[in-house]
What we know:
Bound molecules: zinc ion
Helix content: 40-55%
Radius of gyration: 21 Å
Amino acid sequence: MKDTSISPAARPDTGLHAGADTGPDSGTEIDTGLGAERPMKPAMWRGWRRRCPSCGSGPMLRGYLKVRDECPVCNEALHHHRADDGPAYLTILIVGHLMAPMILIAYTTWRPEPMVLASVFSVGCVALSLYLLPRLKGLIVAIQWSRRMHGFGNA
Ligand SMILES: [Zn+2]
């Protein structure tokens, strides 16, 4: 039995409290934000998988697109995000630039019936958009968390 080998200091919430001896009103909070590294690439991968950018195990989203106020596993605050139109913009950017040449290639190669072409690409466009949108939202929230934007650094 090696359960006793797990230190309570390994828990992220206790780690945060350990450095907060001076209290929340001390005005030195901004300086303490520089302590923990937040590398962007692992955070982006966690966000793409719709996981908490801090711990990687808690789900970031509730339902399809709603970002949780805080991570249910590590209690990292996630409500600071300002993803706004970013995920939709990136989705349109990617899907549009894929669909336009693919329609041209499909038309010149196979000359399908117009209704066949329209049906296939409508379904494909919607499916790809629904796939990308929550993942790109997780990616953008993770970048904002990693770069300490919009209040993520004050926590
Ligand atoms: Zn977490």
